Amino acid sequence: MTLEEAVAQVPAVKLRTAVTALALGDNIISQWCHGLEDPHDPPPTDWINSYPNAVDTWVFGHLRGLLPVQASSLAGSE
């Protein structure tokens, strides 16, 4: 990767970090809402675990291969 390519990635990397943080926060709020609406039903753990990655795929889709992997942020949500 050239210096120009690395510099061009900076805004996308910052945006990806912000989107990941937003998805993790949304996931927590959604779990709270589920607990309030259906207190006797267990939370959908499969969806909870896959949600941050699903958001990342939806937002960045075809750009995912061009951006560095955010293993620590997404792995922490599972």
Provide a descriptive summary of the structure in words:
There is one protein chain. By secondary structure, the chain is an all-alpha fold. The chain has 3 helices and no strands. Helix 1 packs antiparallel against helix 2.
Put simply, the count of helices is 3
Order of helices and strands: HHH
Helical proportion, percent range:
over 70%
Low-confidence sequence ranges = none
> How is the main sheet built?
none
- Average pLDDT score: 83
Give me the Rg, rounded. 15 Å
Class of secondary structure makeup: mainly alpha
- The count of DSSP E runs of length 2 or more, i.e. the number of strands, is 0
Please report which band the strand proportion falls in: under 5%, 5-15%, 15-25%, 25-35%, 35-45% or over 45%. Answer: under 5%
| Mass-distribution shape | elongated
Q: What is the first-to-last residue Cα distance?
A: 31 Å
